[in-house]
Amino acid sequence: MKSKITWLLATLLSIASTATFLLSSGCSTAGPQVPAGTAAAKQPLATAGSTANASGAQLWAQNCGHCHNIRTPTFYSDAQWEVVVLHMRVRANLTAEEHKQILAFLKSAH
Amino acid sequence: MRLLKPAMLALVIGTTVNVANGQDQGESNKFVSKEDYLKLKEEHAHLKQELEALKSRLEQLSKSAASQEGTNVKAQVEDLQKKGASRQAETDQALDEFDKELKQVKQMAKDSFPGSTKMLLAGYGSATFMATRSGYGPAQPLPPDSRDANSSFSATFNPIFLWKMSDRLLFEGELELELEGSETSTALEMAHISYLLNDYMTIGAGKFLNPGDYFVERQHMAWVNKLPDKPLAVYDGLMPESLVGVQVRGAIPVGPTKIGYAFFAANAPTLTTTPADPTNPIELGTLSFDNFDNSNGHISAGGRVGFYPMPELEIGYGFQTAAVAPRGSDVNALLQSVDLTYVRDSDILKGTVNLHGQWVWSHVDRYTYDASGSGGFGPLTFTNNRNGGYAQLAYRPSKLENIVLKNLEPVVRYDMINQKKTPVGFDERRFTLGLNYWLGASTVVKVAYEFDRQNGTGQNGNAFFTQFALGF
Question: What interface predicted TM-score (ipTM) does this complex get?
């Protein structure tokens, strides 16, 4: 039991240490990797801690990149993005506003 | 102005004629008297004054005329500017109307496709090579000869069918086709209908991925998972991968952030009370999640709540509780999970940092197995408590300019499961080092080496993996 607790504490300590380092390292507030040349790469970044005022491009980078690499807007057609974003609204618990803005951005980026 | 010039000319000519006339008269008389001279002098002075007055008047009139001309020119320029602006507005309006018409034509072209629903075939596939050293084996109990050194290739294909019936209705179906030995296994991973009830709530029914297990729902896909194999405990371990039932889920904005939630009611897992091998009853007390016919008639309840303190960080808690014993018995199980995900693009680190961690607990109430002893392995009475999880860190220097380095992604993972005090009889810890090369946003080649350590009745062993994974 003691060994379990030790491993658990070590794991949590490692995670907390890494998170603390990253938070204090002055990282940019962008979402994960944004393909160069896209509108998201050109737009100003969201304020840290804010999702309510983010643009469609920022929401796209933040929400999609949370789980996987971001696919470029040209990966799917407009009609396909409608299906994919609805699917991800359900799977990733997107808000209605996030759904609307991300879809509008992906369509406008074509 | 035109009238003044002839008047001036006439005045000068008149003056000259008068003077000349006087001279002619003088010449006729040969001499000019003093009176005549004074008279002429007075007339000359008078004419000079008149000339000066006319000059002054002329200058005033000239200035006045110039001012009048400037005003006229300014008015003309303003008029031209107004006309230009008017034409620009007309041009802009025409362009706007052209854009609108273009969009209408595009929409008509889109609408002309047959059917009013939209379907998409997505999914992923992978090809994996694994070479193991003697003693390597997963956490689940295996016959001794399964731990011999081995090398093998395997392949999986997971087509996902997405069907958008309307703006509110979605069907998701997923198959898993996998090579197992000389045969291909087929499984229905997901068959789920979702309906968007409002901005904050979606209801669904069918077979769906377990929303209480973050790795299962968000990370297990081959092109998303950073390593070729999946972590202990959180996948195919202590929590179910999929559930058959109903769920309600969504997200609620909270100030500058949001809370995501998912709650479900589904068929309950079944307690394993009869081992396959009575002489080695290692699976006693574990839960079988493939209880699609709900043989015991129990319904489980569970869910997950995820909170985003900032856009890059998500912290979640998931759970599932159910009665799991055969009818007439009172044995409950409680499964719990905590997870943390932190993904951030860093200018200082020149890339993306990806941190995942999850820990799960499985508790099954105390129960007496083979109480009569007729099964040949009992009676055995125990409470089954197991737990485990993983922490994983990946870094991709995507902001470097070197095209090779920017697509490399080193990964390190530590995962474990604790179950020594159960009939399984051993704990397991694994440490995995991996290196990925991204050929595209959803195409990756992975290489990894895994150190596997087991205590108790387990064995130690290492494994080498390489995997090609693609999402589409």
Answer: 0.73
